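Lecture 7, part B: from sequences to assemblies.

Below are the input chains for today's worked example.
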Amino acid sequence: MAFELPSLDYAHNALEPHIDTRTMEIHHGKHHAGYTSKLNDAIAGTDLDGKSIEDILAGLDMNNGALRNNGGGFYNHSLFWKVMSPNGGGTPTGDLAAAIDAAYGSFDAFKTAFANAAATRFGSGWAWLCVHPGGKVEVCSTPNQDNPVMPGVSCGGTPVLGLDVWEHAYYLNYQNRRPDYINAFFNVINWTEVSARYAAGK
Ligand code: MN3
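Predicted structure of the full complex, as structure tokens:
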């Protein structure tokens, strides 16, 4: 049973001006599609065929480069599209807001920590907000298409928010100005979705 490229919940131009249309078209239609196709190639005919992506990544052999890169790429982008919305932005509420305050003191302090993780990830990678069992949240970052679901990778929680800081995610609109892209991301974060993932993951 092959993985399929998930469709977007909004139009390619819906996140303008924060994420530009052409970037969304290429990022979803080419990059994510490529990871999906190569993930299917990597699991075809193996006993991983039919498993969930979470189970595949949790049990990953980190020396399996094709599965690590493409399984990670499939999972990471599938989460990324969901945690953005044209109606996004603002701040979280409820249990997630309380957990962020408990870990970082305030939403602004969390935002600084997340933006710093995204800005200082050298080269290509991702910034994450993860939840640990019991509900504690933690910011971390990973290189390339790694993520905290993989064995021994970074903060090791369940990702509830992720930001792609590969140049392909922002270069057409922001060129080398990664911090501007990171700031813009906060205008499209779908906190309703992030809160639902927090509730499910804690
Ligand atoms: Mn990407």
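Note for the exam: The two ends are 29 Å apart (CA to CA). Keep this in mind when comparing with the next example.
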